[in-house]
Write a structure and sequence with these properties.
two-stranded antiparallel sheet, elongated, mainly alpha
Length: 223
């Protein structure tokens, strides 16, 4: 659209309404998407820092943000967090970044659950720890009961620690993504404002000039 705008000026022809309309519509659409993405990233940062919503709700908002800014790499990771993983060479980097990798019998594997499932497992182990109570048996049965009790406590605590660490790592990555996006869009918005101001000033200076004069200017600039 910008090319048609300059070509009309260079040829000394009046700008058609369709050229101006399409140019302005395209620019407005991009500006609106950027403004929505900036507001969404700011809102997501508040969700994370103030713990206003669940981690899964944060994830859904991050997916919307990644789509708005067309960040395909981040969107790929977020979709895995939403639907769950398969252990492959392609997904390993995401598993490593969120603390999901571990080794069993010398073979590397990982926690492949979705973020929603991770949160459910955290809640389940929290409830289990709260409901476990010291056995009140006596005699020989007490030793066995205590061993089982401690085993159950250790298992629940270990799972809670592992899943809680994964959840924290995911939220940390979401915060980095939202923060990076917010500041990039803020800087881009400031640059666009400066550019637009300069463009309007230059266009107002060029509009009265004839096509031949504009061609001479462009020829000099390209030398």
């Amino acid at each position: 659209m910008r090319l048609g705008y300059r070509r009309a000026l260079r040829m000394g022809q009046p700008l058609s309404w369709s050229v101006l309309r399409d140019y302005e519509l395209g620019r407005d659409h991009l500006r609106n998407r950027q403004a929505e993405a900036r507001a969404l990233s700011d809102d997501l940062l508040a969700d994370i820092e103030l713990v206003r919503v669940s981690a899964e709700q944060m994830l859904l908002k991050a997916i919307r943000l990644a789509r708005l800014i067309e960040d395909e790499s981040t969107l790929e990771w977020l979709q895995l967090e939403l639907h769950g993983y398969q252990f492959t060479s392609e997904t390993r980097k995401y598993l490593a970044a969120t603390g999901r990798l571990f080794v069993v019998n010398g073979e590397e594997t990982g926690y492949l659950q979705s973020l929603g499932e991770i949160e459910a497992l955290i809640r389940s182990n929290e409830i289990k720890l709260k409901t476990l109570s010291t056995p009140s048996l006596s005699g020989d049965g007490l030793i066995t009961a205590l061993n089982n009790f401690h085993a159950n406590v250790n298992a629940a605590a270990g799972s809670l620690s592992a899943y809680g660490g994964i959840r924290s790592a995911i939220i940390g990555e979401l915060h980095s993504f939202a923060s990076r996006t917010y500041y990039e869009l803020t800087f881009s918005e400031e640059q666009a404002t400066l550019f637009e101001s300069a463009r309007q000033e230059i266009d107002s200076m060029l509009s009265p000039l004839s096509g031949n004069t504009l061609q001479k200017i462009e020829s000099k600039l390209s030398d």
